[in-house]
Amino acid sequence: MGVIALMRSGRPLVPVLTPCPGHHNHAWRRAEAAGLPHDLSPVWGHPVHCGRCTDRAQAQLAELPELLVVVALEARHGSRPKTTGTVGRTPSHRWPGEASRMLTDHIVGGLLDLEDDLRELRHLRPRNTASAEGQKACRAVQFVTAHLEWALTEHPMANEPHDRLSANPAAQIHSWHTTAMRFTRRDVRLDHPQVPCARCNLLSLYRPDGSDYYECRNVECGLLLTPAEYQAHTQRMTTEHARPVAA
Ligand SMILES: [Zn+2]
Ligand SMILES: [Zn+2]
After folding, report:
1. Closest ligand to residue 197's CA
2. Is 231 found in the same domain as 155?
3. Are 208 and 173 found together in one domain?
4. Which residues sit with Cβ closer than 5 angstroms to ligand 2, an ion?
5. Which of the listed residues 158, 183, 208 is the one where a domain comes to its end?
């Protein structure tokens, strides 16, 4: 980007490094917020989201139309509530296919809201509302994909850290994709190691989706381990476990 382009875009002439708002920086943000000394370093954005988060948002958007079809098939075949979704995530549903219908409404509604939002922010003409749901969803995916770079950089919420309720477009896309993957049972289960935490000794270690660290779910502990530290801890536990008990 040239100097003029930099001035026109309103960005500072000297690029300022900002940490990517993606979930993988969650451990760093938490450590910073606690104000305690730490040796974590964030992944920087280019200029807001890092390349990994941008690529992921693009890939997840591309998969949404097919996922929506699979979710809709669930409604047509009307699985019993027991077999719908994943254990513990789906409460009882009043009629067959209701879970599928609700999820479709949630994802398509969210996509259309994001398209409307981007059209308004970028001063483009309003979306054509007179078409079938599938068509509207596919057009919204195409539109958001075409404006994704802007959405992940210039959108007013583009800097908001990703979490379940974040209005950051990348976090929303991730949330729709993850929910649809879970519903269709295509998700890779979260990495829940069966090794007790190195600090609080509970079976509470897990590795959040896309995170570079293992975290302890115990709020009073909150231990963070790099994959190398986790590996060393596992080996130590295995060695201790294998040691013969003294007679
Ligand atoms: Zn990132
Ligand atoms: Zn712990």
Report:
1. 2
2. no
3. no
4. 197, 199-200, 216, 218, 221, 223
5. 183
For 150, counting Cβ atoms within 10 Å of its Cβ (0-12 exposed, 13-18 middle, 19+ buried), the class is middle
Residue 237 domain boundaries? 188-247
Residues 42 and 18 in one domain: yes
pLDDT tens, residue by residue, 200-233: 888 888 887 667 778 887 777 778 888 888 889 9
Cis peptide preceding 65, ω within 30 of 0: no
Ligand 1 centroid to residue 46 C-alpha, Å: 9
Domain tally for the chain?
Answer: 2
Q: Which ligand is nearest to the CA of 210?
A: 1
How many angstroms is it from 55 CA to the middle of ligand 1? 9
Identify the nearest ligand to the CA of 174 by its number: 1
Rounded to whole angstroms, the Cα distance separating 162 from 26 reads: 8
